[in-house]
Amino acid sequence: MPNVWGLHMPIGIGLDAIDKRRVSIGWAKMGDLSKLPKDREAIKTAIATAYPEKKQGAIPVEAGVIYRFVHGINAGDYIVYPSKHDRMVNIGKFTGEFIYETGPADDDDRYPNSRTVEWLGHFPRSEFNQSALYEIGSFITLFRIKNHTAEFLGKIDPSASGEPEDDQDALPDDDSVSSTVTRQAEETTEDFVIKRIHERLSGHEFEHFIAHLLERMGYTVRVTQKSSDGGIDVIAHNDKLGFEPPIIKVQCKRTTSQINETQVRELLGTLVEGEYGLFVTLGAFAPKVRQSERNLSKLRLIDGEQLFDLIVKHYAELSPRYRTLIPLRQIYVPDLG
How much is the pLDDT for 9? Predict the structure, then answer.
């Protein structure tokens, strides 16, 4: 029975995972990890030698990750990779090939050890139960998924299944646990806010919510007619009457899926001199769309993650209606960098 693995990668490395069809881990100072002995104690010794500053409690956990990545993964095993940059859950199969890319040994920002993957599907986080999202929010870089294999594999093949199996790895150190709690609190809150908006507001109600948020940011706004709006949902401006440029035309999409170039191009096609385009979505934007934003000063894109940040920043100023819709309480969590 194939295993089902979960993987976490930093955003910079994760951005290449889909296009290059591979998943990667670091420990660049240790070189080609596939050359290490098939022995956890030897791997622990190699980590301690390459990284003498490592805390002793972290070494067994990292050795377990390396051992699993090099020796535990088999061709045909499944991989579940939650990509932070676009809020998608990517599911694929390992093809078995191990790749090592040479480079500076002292550049520990490199992730030179990779395994090739055939990606089978990409799904918004909102399509999974919160319990499943908790499981793939593990603090460990590479881990076995035990409790929700059927939910993840059911997305790509209803007949696929996996069996839970005990994994006797060392427990994480206190700092790792604290960092995990912080990250999971942030991700859980973001998931909660995005789901609440998506499930409890219609498309037109979402437009009114965005208009309200822009008002709290200091703009004068008006929501366009429900039909025949030419793709423009909200118009915002600095002066009370809306005669002075810049005029901001806003398109709102309540979807949690990815926004493509065609949709953004429609917004740009409505702009004339002195007007700017703002596209707001609960989902994410395709990489080519983000490239357009970098090249066009009159275009601004706000995805689900950025919208969440704006909501948190202006939460105290939101009307009681929206604070009831999205009930949040301010807390403090460990900030260990």
Answer: 80
Radius of gyration, CA atoms only, the chain: 23
27-72 confidence digits (pLDDT tens): 999 999 999 999 999 999 999 999 999 888 889 999 999 999 999 9
Q: Find all residues with CB under 8 Å of 65, minimum gap 6, and list them.
A: 25, 140, 141, 142
* CA angle at 258 for the pair 146 and 156, rounded to the nearest 5°: 35
Antiparallel, parallel or unpaired: β 284-285 and 258-259: parallel
- Between residues 67 and 335, which one has the greater pLDDT? 67
For residues 288 and 44, give the distance between their C-alpha atoms in angstroms, rounded to a whole number.
42
pLDDT for residue 276? 95
Beta strand residue intervals within the chain, DSSP E: 4-7, 22-25, 78-83, 88-100, 113-124, 142-144, 220-223, 234-237, 247-253, 258-259, 275-281, 284-285, 299-302
Please name which of 40, 23, 16, 31 lies closest in space to residue 97, comparing C-alpha atoms. Answer: 23
Half-sphere exposure of 248 (CA within 13 A, CB side): 25
| Residues 41, 176: Cα–Cα separation, whole Å | 21
- Claim: this prediction has a pTM higher than 0.85: no
β-strand pairing of 4-7 with 22-25: unpaired
Give, rounded to a whole angstrom, the gap between the first and last alpha carbons of the chain.
39
